[in-house]
């Protein structure tokens, strides 16, 4: 994957559908199938920077490429940084991350910045809450990565999180004239199984639906004028 949002070359993004895509049905895919597809997605994400490191090392060991040493070192450095950023992000977004039940917003901002350092859109972090519970924190990170995928040509992903009347509202607004949401993402956010095609885009959205539903919340994606609002509402 060339960025953290998983954008396969053989799938063409389309405009977001009219109305909202959200948790309209309970997850129906088996845990085993979901785990397998999610593992495949993560392996795909990590393969690109890992391959970059290996390619850089191969250049260093090639006696005929001594004039490319600086280029090789830059490739190794940038690929290693991307791999670490993705691994650190994924440990919280997809893993249990030890026994932590509450996350400092500054830590979450650092994780998000690490991912957005390797994609075209910019991150506008406007989370005022000093801490977020695990479910809201993981929802926020996944929403940000999904929003980055909808901003393949650039733009801004604005993140906010508020607590009102015993519920957290986590919102990521993907803003750009060419913002797009792939139909597989809409299906995943609605808790619908993958009908056909590759699971790379669908699986994270479906995982997020399952995550938020298990916490007693709902997730949605609402298209607007030159933006898509990705939102999760969860109990505090």
Written description of the protein model:
The structure is a single chain. The protein has one domain: 2-Layer Sandwich (Heat Shock Protein 90), CATH 3.30.565. The protein is 45% helix and 19% strand. The protein has 6 helices and 8 strands. The strands form 2 sheets. Strands 1-7-8-6-5-3 form a 6-stranded mixed beta sheet. The chain has a two-stranded antiparallel sheet with strand order 2-4. It is globular.
Instruction: Please give the radius of gyration in angstroms.
Output: 18 Å
Main beta sheet, described? 6 strands, mixed
Helical content class: 40-55%
Class by alpha and beta content: alpha+beta
Give a topology summary.
Blueprint: E1 21-22, H1 31-61, H2 69-93, E2 102-104, H3 105-116, E3 122-125, E4 131-133, H4 134-150, E5 156-164, E6 167-175, H5 183-189, H6 200-214, E7 218-224, E8 227-235
Parallel strand pairs: 3-5
Antiparallel strand pairs: 1-7, 2-4, 5-6, 6-8, 7-8
